[in-house]
Amino acid sequence: MAGRRVVVFPSSAELGPVLAQLVKSRAEKAIISHGRFTLGLSGGSLVSMLSKELPALPDLDCSKWVVAFCDERLVSFDDPESTYGLYKGQLFSKVNIPDSGILTIDSSLAVNECASLLFLFDLLLLGMGPDGHTCSLFPDHPLLEETKKIVAPISDSPKPPPQRVTMTFPVVNSAHCVAFVSTGGSKAPVLKEVLEGREGPAFPAARVVPTNGELFWLVDDPAAASLTIQVERLGSGAKL
Ligand SMILES: O=C(O)[C@H](O)[C@@H](O)[C@H](O)[C@H](O)COP(=O)(O)O
Q1: Is the CB of 127 under 6 A from ligand 1?
Q2: Is 128 close to ligand 1, i.e. is its CB under 6 Å away?
Q3: pLDDT of residue 117
């Protein structure tokens, strides 16, 4: 791993603009290096944060972006549970990502058929649930041990809806850069165990250790409240 940075902000109001800058700077770097920017998105609070902050950036050019989803629920795109549907309504309508650059599942297929091939990502934006899951990789689930599939179906998600597709650890841990965004006091106990270790099996989020890439944990003060490790403290004007 290229080093883990745990960065604490007073609140998500300061975290959001720094996350948007991280996305922009990694996009510029990727486009200079290989002509396109491959971005993996997650749902949860990231949807509203990115939809507010990315369109507010001056001179954001998304014409060479390729966007996919770190996990997706198998529901129709107009269902409020669809991660793609949320981003479409709130973000994709405001930035110039070409339609051909947005990779979605085909929600009319059966869950075993709609996990498609993805690739090496420049940046994955991940959330973490209070149970320590990330993507749709849940504690104690057999998918945690998946090594052959890049994207896998899941039909028994403990969090509804039950049918989803998810990136697996091999693709997550091959990314150039992974950034978790975790805010709010409900995340404090699990964040401590993920970052500082626990007795018993590591939580899925703790198993995200990019082999050759960067790892960021971008959290706010309430989420960081129980941490005893050294952290960086930044405000809204910071660059990562
Ligand atoms: O598919 C899901 O069930 C959610 O997308 C979920 O994985 C979410 O990303 C995390 O629970 C973090 O949620 P917050 O971003 O709201 O903290």
Answers
A1: yes
A2: yes
A3: 45
